[in-house]
Amino acid sequence: MPDLVPDKPCASKPDLISRIRLIKGDIARQTDVEAIVTSVSPDLNMRGSLNSALIAAAGEKLDNFILDNIYKPQPGDAFALPPFSLPVKHIICVMVPIWRTDFQREDRHLIQCYRNAMQQAHRMGIKSIAFPALGTGKGKYPIERAARLAIQGIRGRQIGILEEIRIICDRDETYDAFLKRLKKEGWKEGRSPPTRG
Question: Residue-wise pLDDT tens for the chain (197 aa)?
């Protein structure tokens, strides 16, 4: 399957890529944003280092709330959750697909994870949101592919009142792949300098 055609930003509105801040670190420590995005597979499995860190910070009620309140989710869906013990206003949970082959629909579903999470943020009036590098852990996406799809998903949304979109990378190789992709897409470090730590 050929690469998806990148969305072209509309000339009449700002491009969301200029609002991205790339960070090497732990998403559970991004407590100065209004919303943190987490991911689960459509079977509502909360395994993985990202969710372990968030459950440790938010408390076990997060896992129980997801199991009790999300019914038959589809890949790409996004749900707004309470923050529980996290010092943020919202958690947005997305259903990340598992990458298998080029001939299935996982690419579009991963793009939808970003788009639907940002749509939820727009509806709730959120000004700052932190994403993990979706799909690069238990989703098993090749990192360069996940980076391309992430930027494509972010660029496909209207800017609304979003002032900052963080992408949090927990590994050096993930950070480097996202930085390379951002630069290829015309992101200027001077606008929103990448951060390590």
Answer: 333 333 444 433 456 788 899 999 988 899 899 999 988 877 776 666 666 677 777 777 887 888 888 888 898 999 999 988 888 999 999 998 888 755 567 889 999 999 999 999 999 999 999 999 998 887 788 999 999 999 999 986 666 788 899 999 999 999 999 999 999 988 876 444 444 44
Domain spans in the chain, listed from the N-terminal domain onward: 16-188
Distance CA 129, CA 42 (A): 22
Beta strands 20-24; 78-81: pairing state: unpaired
Q: What is the 3-state secondary structure (H, E, C) of the chain?
A: CCCCCCCCCCCCCCCHHHHEEEEECCHHHCCCCCEEEEEECCCCCCCCHHHHHHHHHHCCHHHHHHHHHCCCCCCCCEEEECCCCCCCCEEEEEECCCCCCCCCCHHHHHHHHHHHHHHHHHHHCCCEEEEECCCCCCCCCCHHHHHHHHHHHHHCCCCCCCCEEEEEECCHHHHHHHHHHHHHCCCCCCCCCCEEC
What top-level class would CATH report for the domain 16-188?
alpha beta
